[in-house]
Amino acid sequence: MDIYKSEELFWQRRGGQNWLLKGDANTAYFQAVANGRRRKCAIPFLWDGDALLENPVDISTHIYSFYKELFSAEPRGGVSLCADFWPLAY
Fold it and tell me: Domain ranges in the chain?
């Protein structure tokens, strides 16, 4: 894929518009739409229990640790299958 098509695809995805034509990425309206979507999707602060996190590094660290704990391999709760639940067929 050449560099121009790659850049066109970037602006189309960033703006979220299907009507992007050659040169539209240079208009003030398109730039406002593209940057507005970025601001709308941003996370300016996050509540962690009773603490307010405003620093982007603190927010990233909290989100990372939350999902790391959520998807950890350690079993949670008292539900488990017995060892011979699935019979092995050799």
Answer: 3-40, 43-71
